[in-house]
Design brief:
single chain, alpha+beta, four-stranded antiparallel beta sheet
Amino acid sequence: MVKLIFCLHRLPHLDRAAFQTYWRERHAPLVAAHAAALGIRRYVQCHSLDEASFAAMTASRGGLAGYDGVAELWFDSLEQCLSARGPAAREAGRLLLEDEKRFIDLARSPLFFAHEHEVVPFNRGADVR
């Protein structure tokens, strides 16, 4: 598995709630509709929580502004992801980018490919408090 990680900053005219609502209710269904054409196996949105709640933690790390969210797109392999270049994939990519320009500050939102290295395994039965 390989992931495309997209660290998102919202456009300046959007507040956090408007950004997250658009991303969840408008953009997510668009990604889902084009997942097969792009070879996306899984799509996860991580919406940031209220920054004020974590001000001390942010300040202890230099106080840089956090992201409004992180998108994770999962693919079987980097080769498979990069090989999705037919007409359907190109059109899907065009539509997604067009929509992203409506709510994401793309110039401030880096993306990168990564391999996941599990350190603490997911344990569905664990008692987490």
